[in-house]
## 1
Amino acid sequence: MNVVVFSGGVGGARFVQGVARALAPEAVTVVGNVGDDLEVLGLHVSPDLDSIMYALAGVNDEERGWGRAGETWRVLESVAELGGETWFRLGDLDLGVHLVRTQALRAGTPLSAATAGLCAALGVEPCLLPATDDAVRTWIATAEGELSFQEWFVARGHRDEVDGVRFAGAGSAAPAPGVLDAIATADLLLLAPSNPYVSIAPILAVRAIRDALTARAVPCVAVSPLIAGRAVKGPADRMLARLAGGTRPAHVAACYEGLIDALVVDEADASDLDGLGEVRPIIARTLMVDLDARRRLAEAALGAVPA
Ligand code: FO1
């Protein structure tokens, strides 16, 4: 069974780990969000691609949720001493990835090819593709004005309430090579339990990707990022309450109108399924505490396709 998973960073990466354990690696393609990408200290950083890549390579930092396990911060200390920018923390091991990627991009290598090179070097077997090789960047409308994604998320700790989201560059962005082929040959499409507004929406903002999902001939299953109306981490619950009018499963499903056939919801939400319409609920334990829990959650979503 071939599967394509659309994923953001931390939560999505954990789910992708489960999918990669439930299936043969060559059956899995992950399409990652690039709306969070930014330049730090002159280097191109792709936080969501890296979270997925590190998780699949088994070198991710479990506790922090982003970056590499066993990280050290000597370069950051030196940057701080020199008065450089330290608001976005790049660890020493992580910096190696940003250096190699940035050099490749400056030499004209597309982000998808640079990502493939990094994944191969780290022994990642599933195929990891950026949604696009073009620059799509997420901007957040707040009462303080429009903020770049990482200024809102990291520098300001996503405290500002969100009035709207914009994906600069999405209008003219093309899917990265391999994305549409993977969708066309998939038996199942999965939307990871990532933030619908800032992790999955920037992927779907690439018109040809959204069109391919709308015209799908195979099931598409989303996994809700909320448990009993609360996000495990991050601002997804606050954003849904403000932008979708609530945090029930029906509100999550509404974010993906016309794009999903089933929604995996937590056992805690099993009695709150009104308003799902055509979307079939799949009840599972969605808290991804360890690798077993991630695999079991993936298997619940994969169950949408008869074996
Ligand atoms: N998140 C933070 O909250 N603070 C950071 O300093 C930070 C640095 C960072 C460096 C590399 C990387 O790949 C991710 C990093 N993240 C950091 C996480 C990341 O910005 C967000 O979790 C995602 O963009 C949201 O998916």
## 2
Amino acid sequence: MADTYQTILVGAADGVLTITLNRPDAMNAYSAAMSSEVQAALKNAARDAAVRCVVITGAGRAFCAGQDLAEIKGSYTGEKPPLDFGAHLRKHYTPLVKAIRTLEKPTIASINGVAAGAGASFALACDLRIAGKSASLMMAFVNIGLIPDSAATLTLIQHAGYGRAAELCLLGEKLPAEEAHRWGLINRVVEDAELPAATAALAAKLAALPSRALALTKRTLASALRNTLDEQLEYEAFAQATAGATKDHVEGVRAFLEKRKPTFTGA
Ligand code: T3D
């Protein structure tokens, strides 16, 4: 599959898989083909033990401009029936967001430019966001009479709180990266020219950490969103028992006691 992608570039090195949305002339707008290809790339990443961190970024000056509006033009000119939005979301968007959120490996959105509509939602679904100074987030949905989707109504509130989520979603204005950082929506902002290197350093760090502990941490953070205190304490006890039984845990403690750097293998 890796050789047959038309809308994305996929590269892997040193445990880091990078998916580059690659339709720069259309601001990497999200087409049906891109949806299938990103889903396939994430499925491969999930299966491949050599992949320990996934980066999603965009080619050119945008991260992703959301739904490719040109692709669905026919539904607005009368050439095609009106779009079945529910079915369209369930087929092309929901699986992608679920794949990002449930991937048992850390995901980084490296936001190289504007992330609009579902493009912003995808970035918000990743575990971490690093952005160039000129990047921005834009809940563009309202500008075309739609509601925010691809879980942005949830992730925005989780990352920034209701008031800020409402401001972004109701006004549909661009939020510059540095402001988004202050709001808690972006973890790190760097100079544009430094974004590739800063992303690579962050991804390399994650790829070198104990991957089972990272996977269990993701699951445990996710469970906290739905659990009561008692349930979450119990979940943590269960997850810690699993982490504590890994070779990487033993290596981490031994390395500490022996005053050396640990070498984690994912076992
Ligand atoms: O079931 C469903 O489908 C519902 C799901 C919805 C999910 C969504 O994502 S809805 C939201 C869709 N996205 C938008 O509404 C954003 C539309 N784009 C913009 O607002 C602006 O283009 C940007 C803020 C992203 C960037 O502005 P700017 O001034 O930097 O660039 P530009 O000149 O507007 O765009 C550059 C090119 O990209 C241009 O093409 P051209 O004229 O050079 O040939 C423009 O048409 C194209 N482009 C930008 N966004 C899209 C797009 N082409 C197709 N679809 C786009 N979303």
